[in-house]
Amino acid sequence: MAVLRTPDERFAVLPGHPFAPRYAMVPGPAGQPLRMHVVDEGPRGAPVVLLLHGEPTWSFLYRKLIPRIAAAGLRAVAPDHIGFGRSDKLAERTEYSQERHVGWILALIRALDLREITLVCQDWGGPIGLAALAAEPDRFASVVAANTILPTADPELTRGVLEWRTDALLDWIVGSQRMPTFSAGAIVAGVCKRPVAPEVVTAYDAPFPDERHAAAARHFPVLIPITPGDPGAAQNRATWRALERFERPFLTAFSDGDPATRGWETIFQRRVPGARGQAHATLANAGHFLQEDAGEELAELVIRLVRSG
Description:
Distance between the termini: 44 Å
Oligomer: single chain
CATH topology: Rossmann fold
Strand order of the largest sheet: 2-3-5-4-7-8-9-10
Shape: globular
Low-confidence stretches: none
CATH architecture: 3-Layer(aba) Sandwich
Number of helices: 11
Largest sheet: 8 strands, mixed
Mean pLDDT: 95
CATH superfamily: Alpha/Beta hydrolase fold, catalytic domain
């Protein structure tokens, strides 16, 4: 199993991201240890805010939230999934699966012994982080679901709220595989509602000096379950069974400019008991990556939720 590590010099200039890198070891597919990067700021004994990114970003996405969360007396923990950011990368795409991504996050949570967790999850951070919650619910105090989905490809999940259209997913899946040059920065900038500075685009591209380093980012789209028999669909069903018993605070904070996830906030609100009575928010003038467009506003929502508990 070939393991790659992005050279440190690729991360020499990261605007608005002064955080020292920290690492934990998690098990690889063949038992080989992998180095997982995590930003870990704020008091160690404080309630934890676990910030999970998705495709094709890394913990840099949360740079506007981390200092505000830490200044509020909370512990901000923002890992890079294996294959992303400063974390180790497997060169073979077939080594990645949704189940393994969940396992790596669980391994990190256990290694750091994180408790009283408020999970903030966006994009793939949702299916991964919520599956971790389903596995160890006692570690989690609350959830902020932000522009994420938890698909099973079962029509009854979305009936009456949105039509689950596989053609839109297939467009992204196929398009992501056919891009001649993979640029995480261009993808982020392309779906933001507010201008993204060139140096920020470069920072999103930093983890991927070549195609071999981008294997996980290339592969994430094809892991999206689009038929009921897909492995991810089965795992997401198990996650839904846990969420339908989750009575701790569950807040949705979606943006007004993300057609990819529009309607899923309603599904979470209807199916998760802890979502009842919460001050669910819609962030204005923000696209899919609302951390980039409206990070300060999202941080305030997270802090308010933690303090209300």
